[in-house]
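idk why but the lab printer keeps eating my pages so im just putting this in chat instead. protein + 6-O-phosphono-beta-D-glucopyranose:
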Amino acid sequence: MNQAPVAPAATLVIFGAMGDLAKRLLMPAIANLVRWNLLDPKTEILGVSYHDGDDETLRATLDDFIEGDEVWEKLRAHIHYFKGDFTQDETFQRLAGAIKGNAIFYLATAASFFGPVTQKLGAAGLLKEEDGFRRLVIEKPFGSDLASAQALNKTLLEQASEAQIYRIDHFLGKETVQNILVARFGNSIFEAVWNNRYVDHVEITAAEQVTVGTRGKFYDATGALRDMVPNHLLQLLALTAMEPPTSFEAEPIRSEKAKLIAAVHPADPADAVRGQYKGGKIGADKVAAYRETPDVSADSRTETYVALKLTVDTWRWSGVPFYLRTGKALSARDTEIVVHFKSAPTSLFKGTEVTKLPCNRFVLQIQPDEAISLDLAAKIPGPLVDVAPVSMTFAYADRFEMGHRTGYETLLYDVLTGDQILFQRADQIEGGWRAIQPLLDAWAKRGKPEPYKPGTAGPSGADALLARDGRQWHTLG
Ligand code: BG6
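predcted complex ->
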């Protein structure tokens, strides 16, 4: 493996430093970058929060989340606390006095702060790249519909250039997601069959076993569709279906993804299903109904599951349905992309078992247990032509050292080195919202989600959606 170069030194300013994201994911990822010798020792971390506290308060909060080794001891000294109210100009004037040279502003805050904090950073001159780079990292949710995403992009682009803005989709930090491009374009055997002549349909699944838990307030205002589809699932779709880029650089890749997302035909409410989990059990564990979750309204119509069929208006994908599904409290955690190929002309095998076999499938297992597999038909040894489905599987963990990572390491390293490949451009974000806006509009007005039992694969309507087309979902888990 080639050792990546050390990233340039910078001040990493984290707004919302006492929040969950910063503690659970960002800081442990920074510690991993130190462990892998990718962080310049002059890098400083400035945690901004309005709580009372000092450097030691912040460091002590992080002690619970980072392995207490030599690396953490070294990093600890570079972590500083900056008490400040994000709504006050005075905070940003003080920051301007404290920061010199390269700086990254990471907005690990509630989404309502993304616009206002960016405006205040701009007004304080903090986004001017006079003595170093100045970059802005924006978390999700990026807007709550097309209009709000457009408005947020406008606000950001009034203060910073597109090249300074890093819109995070943490799915793109997952190794196996990055591997989609390598699998497709680093191997010559796939491209020839990656089209409507050979592909029957594609499934993209992000199933979770976890419930909404303590996130009731955020989730009840958001729902599974907004939370997962215009961002994570459409990013997976874009990587699966985009045309080959002209080079492995940010702009060619982002342009191809944006083109693909723009070609997604706006979702038809008749081709979408929403569900909400009832009370029940997942394995041996009792699960309260979604409506009984703290901070969720007792008659909530928010969906915790969504399944939809999309089509992509390009020559390559004309007539190939893409079925997407995601939900909480399901039977298994399973994120995967399944490309189903058309059946082979079976006349050769008439009267044998071959006609009953499932078609070839290419499965990209993203989590857990990252793997790639190809389902084939093989002859069962013996005098008769008897056929069985077999699977060739490459499991990441068998071949590579996976280690423990948060998924944010590559993303943070890329922000420091100025590589925007894994970040969403304004047009991709807006394209994602445009694709699902008809569902947001329809669901706001009428109907309600279909209840489903926790620990299952979701509502029966999702099965009916595929059964209508003579298909069925790949089994979860
Ligand atoms: C987040 C969503 O973006 O992604 C969560 O807000 C979801 O609701 C999470 O649980 C899933 O991410 P991962 O990495 O656990 O698959």
